[in-house]
Amino acid sequence: MVSRRRGHFRQRDLVPITQVHGCAGEAMQARANGSRMNTKRLPSADRVLVTGARGSAAAGVMRAISREHATVLAADVDPYAPGLYLVPPEYRLLVPRAEDPAFADELLATCRAQGVSIVIPGEAAELAPLAARAEDFAVAGIRLMVASSDALAVAGDRIAVRERIAGELPSVPTTLLGAGRVPADHPWPARARPRSLAEDAEAVTLAGPQELDAFPTDGRLVLEPVLDGPETWVDVLRIDGRCIATVPRECLRRDAGIAVTTRTRRDDALQSAAADAAAALELEGIATVHVQRDHAGTTFLADVAAGVPDEIALPVAAGVNMPALWLRSVLGRGGVSPVQDFDEIAMARVPREQTVPVSELGVTGRSTGEIAVDIAA
C-alpha cells in the first residue's frame, strides 16, 4: 500500500515556541475578526504556495524548491503544523480542511489576495477538490500541480487502475468483495483492504475463506493475496504528457506500516513500466507507482498514488529534484529535458525528541500533554 501517513520532522525543523505562539495568536485574532491569516499583500515575486504543511511531503517540496527564484508560502488548517515554520511568519497561511466544501473557494481567494501563481498540494485529500476547480484557478492565472479529475478518479480506484493499465504491468490478483463468491482458487493467506485509496484504512490479513463472513460484501473492499517479496515505489514526473524522470525507491525496512529505511535502485525495465502505467492513467505532475514482488521474483502492480509522496526527499537527494523541475517548466525557465541518471543512495527516517524548558510550556497557552503529543508526532 502506498503510504500517505505523516512523516517525522527532524530536530532542525523545530523553532522557538515563541514563534509558534506568534502564529497561533495571529490565527486566533484573525478568526475573531472573521478572516484568515495574512490578508496583507506580500511583496511582488513569483509566489508558490505549498499546502498541507503538516506532512512530510510539503516539507520536502519546500526544501526542494528553496533555491528556486520564487517566494515560497506554506498553508495548513492547523497553525501548529510543523511545515509552516519552514517559512517566515508573513508567508504562513491558514486554509480550511480539504474535506470542507469551502476549501477550494477559500484557497482560490487566498491565492488571488496574495498574488500566488502556483500551488503545489502536499496532501492527497486536497487533489480532488482542487482538480474539480482547476479551470477557475487557471482563469485566475494560477497553475496547480494536480492531475485531471478523471485521472484522479481512476488512480484512486484499485479495480479501475488494474483495468486501465492491463498490459503495462501485471497486477496483484484482486477480487472485489461483492455479492458473488470469492473464486475457489483464490490464493491464501489474503488481505482485505478498501477499494478506494481515499480510505486510508489498514489492510487486514485473512488466513482463509472462513474469515470472510466478518467483512462487508457491498463492493467497498477488495481481496488480494499476501506477497512476501520486496516492495518498491517508483516516483514518476510527467509534464505536459512527457515523462521527465522515474526514480525507484526500494523498501529495506518497515516499522508500523511505514517504510523507515529505503534506497534508490536503478531498474530500467521497472522504470519503463512505471512510466507507461502513469501515461496510461494520464497522470500529470508527480505520481508514485507501487510494485511488489512475490517469492518467485515476479513484479506486480500494487497501487498508483497521485501527488507528492512523503518520501520526496529521497529522489531529490539522489539528484532528481522533481518539484523544482516541474516549477521551472511552469515558470517557463527554459525547456525541461528528461533526467535519465540518479545516484543510488539510502535514507533512514530517524525521529528525534526535542526538549524545552518547563518555563516555556505555558507560552502557547496549551497543556503540556498537547505539546508532548505534537513533539512526539
Beta fraction: 15-25%
Number of strand segments: 15
Strand count, sense and barrel status of the largest sheet are: 6 strands, antiparallel
Radius of gyration: 21 Å
Q: Low-confidence parts, pLDDT < 50 over ≥5 residues?
A: 1-18, 24-44, 360-377
Q: Percent range for helical residues?
A: 25-40%
Q: Could you give the distance between the termini?
A: 21 Å
> What would the principal axes of the Cα set say about the shape?
globular
- In terms of structural class, how would the helical and strand content be classed? alpha/beta
Average pLDDT level:
82
Structural account:
The protein folds into 3 domains: 11-146, Rossmann fold; 178-225, no CATH class; 228-348, D-amino Acid Aminotransferase, Chain A, domain 1 (2-Layer Sandwich), CATH 3.30.470.20. The chain is 26% helix and 22% strand. The chain has 11 helices and 15 strands. The chain has helices at residues 17-32, 56-64, 103-114, 127-132, 134-139, 149-155, 158-164, 268-280, 313-317, 322-330, 368-376; strands spanning 47-50, 71-76, 92-94, 118-120, 143-144, 175-176, 190-194, 204-206, 221-225, 231-239, 242-255, 258-264, 285-293, 299-306, 346-348. β1 (47-50), α2 (56-64) and β2 form a beta-alpha-beta unit.
Brief digest:
By secondary structure, the protein is α/β, with parallel strands linked by helices. The protein has helices spanning 17-32, 56-64, 103-114, 127-132, 134-139, 149-155, 158-164, 268-280, 313-317, 322-330, 368-376, and strands at 47-50, 71-76, 92-94, 118-120, 143-144, 175-176, 190-194, 204-206, 221-225, 231-239, 242-255, 258-264, 285-293, 299-306, 346-348.
